[in-house]
Amino acid sequence: MPNMHNETHKAERIGWLRAAVLGANDGTISVASLVIGVAAAGVPQGSILLTGVAGLVAGAMSMAAGEYVSVQSQADTEEADIEREKRELATDPEHELEELTSIYVKRGLDEPMARLVAVTLMSKDALAAHVRDELGITETMRARPIQAAFASAISFIAGAIIPILAVLLAPSGRVVEVLTATALVSLAVLGGMAAYAGGASVVKGALRVTFWGALAMAITAGVGRLFGTVV
Known about the structure:
The chain has one domain (about 15-230). Helix content is about 80%, strand content about 0%. It has 7 helices and no strands. The longest helix has about 45 residues, at about 45-90. Residues about 10-15 have low confidence and may be disordered.
């Protein structure tokens, strides 16, 4: 029995990985920056914790709503394109055959072979062939708004819990220091994991995420301290 050669490519998981890391990074950076800004203004620790929880809830809902609207728009566009293909296949199948043949020619097949492939595929499932090869829509890449919204909210919450736990466990008066250190370490780990899974440099991935997270927290802390002093 011949050995099966199974290949796995990093590009196959980069879509969901990017979404998960983006949500977690956003959760950590947003809530950590928000909490640090409030803490820098000198408010009590209880108020800092309340701010973090409010930021978690608001951020998760915002991520879910934004992702749903975005992906639903994509889904609507896909459905409209598929319906148009159905009409064109019903009214002008010969033109659609020529269109599919030209696609395969552009991909490297000679014209007779491209036409044979197009005829064969269209005889089995013409719509599926056009949706896949003309529109570039596959089952694994179809837009799924509900799943996307849920995944974005969960990943945001996972990232946002980190700074909230840091506030809970930090000694009174050391919230900013503990939270900053915890958030930066978490961001470095997230960036490194994403880079490793995607086949990129772990160090560069970690440094990239950590740098932008540190910048966001530094700016927010400065604003919090400024307005805290003024008020």
